[in-house]
Amino acid sequence: MSQTFGKTRWRRFAVVMVPSIAATAAIGVSLANSALAASFSVSGQSFKVTAADLDGTGFSQFGGVDFEANGTPHPVAISSFDHATIKGLCQSVVTDLGPLGKWTLVLNAGNGDKAVDAKQLLIDLNQLNADAEFTNINIGQDASTLPSGDGTALGKLKASGGKLPTGAQGFAQAADRAHLSGVQQTAWATSAGTFTLNGLKLNINKGSGAGVECY
Fold it and tell me: Quick one: three-class SS letters along 159-187?
């Protein structure tokens, strides 16, 4: 849902994706008030994600804002996939337990013969490193023209109460297929219509940083 935080206006947000052929697509996203929707209320804590391989169809990406319960805004790039398979998935989040110190919850899946399978996948992120290959990509598309019908990731966002952009309100990109490898990202939220975590393993490890978190 589109929201205003005091008198602050988020004017611009840059998203950089790195294709495998070493060209870089830089997207400047306008975030004037009411231009783009906030998709989620978030806990105020980001988490790390890595994947050896992510292969998705029905890809789109545009700018948005996530809000903490206290109103603090976080500009994000919303990446959506109508369907995605993920190999070697890792998600980690650090929690400070006071006198017990910092502990990291680590989730791993898709490391065996069966990949993670996600339908109507939405990722709100603020940092991404990867090698990427796009099929039939359209960079600079009006965000209001992104497909949001039944079965699409943006259709799920709309059905859950998220307000999609209307009119010529935002810079977006879309592709029939996006294939990313060596993924490292920091995200504020992830959701999916279905999320099948084959080979799920969950551990709580003492400490934080390299060697404890996903990266």
Answer: HCCCCCCCCCCCEEEEEEEEEEEEEEEEE
